Amino acid sequence: MPMKNTAIRDILLEERYRVGSPRSKELFERACKTMPGGVKGAYFHQPYPLTMSQGDGCYVYDVEGRKFTDFANHHSTMILGHNHPAVIEVVQKQLERGIALGAAMGIETELSGEMCRRISSVNRIRFCNSGTEATLHAIRLARGFSGRTKIAKFEGGYHGSHDIVEVSVSPSLE
To answer: Residue 9 falls within a domain, yes or no?
Structure first.
């Protein structure tokens, strides 16, 4: 029979979560001592986030050794899964040549050309270091092109970590 009292259900679920994840709790408490807010994304998880130790294919494993299906795929950036052999091979080759050399390396020109060729609506591409930087530039570009100042965003969605997109209307700002 389903539980009718959601407060009791929530307490029991949280206790089950805590019992099943003591190592994640310990690691989060340690992280809070040296990083504001604990860890990246901690605000999405209460009472603390699970700490993952590895990924393989469509699965991730927490520090307790439990296996989870990764439906998020790092917000779709891991569309080929974790530890895909072809990805590992090209990353290893690039590491041998060097990364972050502080100058153009040519590989970005090859990639942008291939992307423009494959996506008919794309004429040019600007690579960014993060999603935050990408949304910041996209908003600046859209405002400059349109002359408008307002933007639309999904309430509760992640749009980067900059002032323009972190403002919310729920809960009330008052």
So the answer is: yes
The runs of H, that is alpha helices, within the chain are 6-20, 22-34, 85-97, 107-118, 131-146, 163-166
The count of structural domains within the chain is 3
Q: Could you tell me the residue range of the domain that residue 108 belongs to?
A: 104-152
Q: What is the rounded distance in angstroms from the CA atom of residue 3 to the CA atom of residue 5?
A: 6
Geometric angle at alpha carbon 64, from 62 and 70, rounded to 5°: 20
33-37, Cβ contacts within 8 angstroms, sequence gap of 24 or more = none
* Per-residue pLDDT reduced to its tens digit, 83-136: 999 999 999 999 999 988 889 889 999 999 999 999 999 999 999 988 899 999
Integer Cα distance of 66 and 10 in angstroms: 22
One domain for residues 114 and 131: yes
CA dist 62 and 47 (Å) reads 16
